[in-house]
Amino acid sequence: MALFYPDEVHITRLLLILRKTYPGVHSNQVAFPGGKIEQGDKDILATALRETHEEVGISPSNVTVVKELSEVYIPPSNFMVQPFIGLMTSAHSFAIQESEVERLIQVPLSDFMDNTNLFEQKITTSYAKNIDVPAFKLNGYTVWGATAMMMSEIKELLEQVL
Question: 106 vs 124, 126, 137, CA distance in Å?
Fold first, then answer.
């Protein structure tokens, strides 16, 4: 869930999380709140809303989903991800899921839209060596991979209307 919301001084922010360090392919990475579908989830949107609630403490009733984005395949974990854009109309308190989330990264919309924060980074993964990937430098963190791909789509959509 790419969640946009106003902070306490009415600056629009985009919420990212820093995942905990653990043995796994997405350890210590910057991401959107989200996760795997569970048996009780009605559909993939319900999964995104449930995971947002679990990971950052925002009730689904406080999120207005405005757009379904393009699916993104993530080779290291062999998952197809369906991202959504959600809006909150007022500031809310967050409550992180201590077992999965190291910290919240609350990015001002103006920083997200600033092209000087967008660059390409060379990485080596388990399936490719020295490849250029889109990346964002936001709040001191480098956001790359699938999250950066989703963010690039969101940025392009916002550029069309702002």
Answer: 28, 30, 13
